[in-house]
Amino acid sequence: MKRPRIRFPRFLIILLLASIILPSGQLQAKEEPAAAFPSLKLEDGTANKVDVFNKDRTTDQTAVYTRKYGERTKPFDSGTVEYIVSGEIVVVKNMKGQNGTYIPAKGFVVSAPAAEALGALEIGQSLQPVGLNEVYLPPNYAEIEGVTIGIDRLNGVRGESEVVLYQPGFGASTQTNPWGMEITVENDLVTHVVSLSNPTPNNALVDNNSTIPAHGYVLSIHTSSKYFKLLDGKVKVGSPVKVVFSQEEEGLTYKTVQTGFDDVNPSTREADKMIIYNRMIDERTGTNSWGNEVIVDAKGTVVRNGGNNSLIPEGGFVISGVGTTANWLAANVSIGSTVRIDQIHKKIIVVFTPESYLNKAQIELENAKLGLKFSKEHFLDVPYTEIENKIASAQTLFEKAHAKLESVDYSGLLSLLADLDQQASDALFMNYESRKVETRGLWRRPTETNIEQVRAHMDKIAALHINSIYLETWWDGFTIYPTTMKETELNPIYEGFDVLKAYIEEGKKRGIEIHAWVQNFYVGQGHTSPIYDDHPDWTMLSRSGRHYSMGSDRFRHYFFNPALPEVRKFVLSLYKELVQKYDLSGLHLDFARYPESGDFTNDFSYDPYTRSLFEKKYKVDPIDLYPGDKLWEEWTRFRIDIINSFVGKVAKEIVPLRPGMKLTAAVWPDYVGSPQNVLQEAKNWTDNNYMDNIFQMSYVPDAALLETDVNNSLALMKNHGFVTSSIAMNMNLPKSVIVDQVDTAYRLGASGAALFEYESLFESGYDHELTIGVYRNEAIMPDYVTTKPLFMLLEEITRKTNEIYVPLNGISQSDADEITRGLLDELKKWDKQKLLNRSLVLPLRTYVMQLGSTIRNHPSIDAEVKNRIIPDLQRSIKIMDIYLSKTNSKTK
């Protein structure tokens, strides 16, 4: 059909031609020339002239002051108003001029006549300097390749998005992970550059960990910092560098962050969207557990960061996100901050000032008091006197800090606020119980090249009361120990150092178990490895013929084919050498599976050998099969059994080579979907009694999701072994959420938690809150072989009865004596026994069952005391049931 001819008006044709010919922007109003004088631009776009900069003003002038002027402005009268501005946002409005206004190291102060336009500004409104570039310079910065780089801290742990300058006093090297770039400088010239993007031997991820020169420094930039993209690949040896240090202390914190929001009260919360909920919809946000939420009260103060389906305060609101927005909220919004919502520009503005410390402390103190009350009402095993002392100390500090802020006396205020913040926070986390028998695992990819480094890292781990390390021993196609296997070798990053031997030796000194974390058929992340390149016939193929799996992390992941006899023989021989050579506490299987299948259009195991095996049995080439086809379930089962048979061989042929060594595995917690998606059937391993402990990988943002995974894992494992909940340290979750997940896993019946992983744990600063809370006490590993864990569980019941339940009037002294005396008498019968045996377990189990029934039906014991004692008895029964399950299996 012929299209009708369209005629355009002449003026429109001219306009279109102009848009093609003229440079961008010339069709619009002519751009304003650069400002002839410095000014301050308000939210409505109006400009207010700045009369003086870092000089004394007269009453009719507007001035801007930075720290170069001094620590504070001069006193002023009622005709003047002054603002502290940080990040182009007003954070403080000062109308009391007797002591002037504090000038922050990061930010500036505006002093203006109160009767003019600037006098009407309020906290949270924007104020943009124009023609005043000097106010943007941070107190410490570096200039390199034409880029000015703000330095976030000197000589500290490099966190997310941060720039850290390391000086010789920090130590021999920066001790940083691979996720960044580092510029070594001597005599104002670059002498060395290392980056995540630099090629390394065998394409392995290698720590930055630059040597700090005796007469220089190292500038360390995290990959998520905006400066990484600006400088990566551009900085060369010999480039000049200039560093400027503030002569003043950094001083009090005045910080603003802002971000946009997408919607208010939507029916669904979508990924990567920032949402605001208010009481116009309901009392709660109604969100699922896959995000993070910030609760803001009617005063605009943040009272909580963490959780989902939050209660919306009267007159307040909740900011909610999933994915990137959830991460942003966790990383940027502190409790005690003030939040302003700019509805016109759809912005969320967060302000943190010294007063925010007081807000935060007040909230945490109130929560600590409520927590202490809850602990007493529920007879929890927490240090009551220490918590009361912390609360009292924090209350005293709060009053001192409040008085200083009221009188505008900032001398010593910085350390006072920091101390207050720590004391109030500590009081809150000390209300968590710390158990004496618990799995406290930590995954660790070793990077050390000498014994001193191992000892330093082991000391940090031991101080956290971790009792088991899952040391990455076979990864990226290399070992971490000298091997005699001709197909592989010790990873060259270790420079010949036997790091596994060092960890085992140092672990024994500290009572920490070392388990070899091995990756089976997974031999390359983001790159191939020499063993992979040397054996192209061993590779796993996808349906389309691809030799790798593309993960959500956008890395290529390389696997060997688990069906090939020569591959299985190699991996089993490697494990045989490993367990015969080293005194390991356990072998920890990871990647006991295939790559993810996705939508099954490019799933795996379509190499000629595997296809021929299946075709020989079923007369069908599996490459022609898809979900729903007649033999699809058989093809799925065929591959599942390849993995299951391998795990069975490890359990039957490798583990017995070192008596007492445990077999554990990291598993996907979706026990229904995993056999289809990654061809991992953990139920087969537990039903066959192969596993001593399964670690369900619950890398989730909310304890509610963890609860489902733990309960499903316990149901799967039954009495065949223990369950440990894996918790992610690398998701930027609030510290309260991490501690709550550790506590929740144990309360639900898991043997404890394993933290993924070492670098994220310490770099994110989770260690302090764990150490004063759930990991306050040392703990021994649960075990069904030795008597110590079982006896300690039962002895702890007697201790808690005498130290907590009786003093808090949960049980009478006479009833307590009857219970504890009988329990201790029973344990004395077996006090010389070091190993569990049936003659011990069977009568003790009967006694504990009877004791539980007696306590459960006792009329005068407080119900909450029963709720404390019964779970402890059940844990002791669990150990005995696992023992009986394992010994019955061996007998069969």
Automatic annotation (TrEMBL):
InterPro entries: Divisome_Glycosyl_Hydrolase, GH, GHL10. It holds the Pfam family GHL10. This is Uncharacterized protein.
